[in-house]
């Protein structure tokens, strides 16, 4: 069984449809590294997606992942509400 990290890296290499490894590495540096595009970046149908010298919107993948915020899954007053709920259930004979 392959690890997820290896699978993602192989998937990135497979989706890179350039003629030479240098062109592929330039695209990966632009797309994942947030570097300026060395040449025009074309989509799967040949239309230019990004012009040479432009930086990908959203910066590098590391910076994009660093800006993800996860909220707590339990409210601050969870223990109080649980105690009160149990008191109410106790009063009605549950």
Report on this model:
The protein has 94 residues and is mainly alpha-helical. It has one domain. The chain is 48% helix and 5% strand. It has four helices and two strands; from the N terminus they run ααββαα. Strands 1-2 form a two-stranded antiparallel ribbon. A hairpin with a 5-residue loop joins strand 1 and strand 2. The protein is rod-shaped. The termini are far apart. The N terminus is likely disordered.
Give the rounded overall mean pLDDT: 76
Q: Outline the biggest β-sheet.
A: 2 strands, antiparallel
Strand order of the largest sheet: 1-2
Q: What fraction of residues sit in β-strands?
A: 5-15%
Defining traits:
disordered N terminus, two-stranded antiparallel ribbon, mainly alpha, rod-shaped, 2 strands, about 90 residues, 4 helices
SSE arrangement:
Blueprint: H1 4-15, H2 21-33, E1 41-42, E2 48-50, H3 61-66, H4 78-91
Antiparallel strand pairs: 1-2
Please outline what is shown here.
The protein has 94 residues and is mainly alpha-helical. Helix content is 48%, strand content 5%.
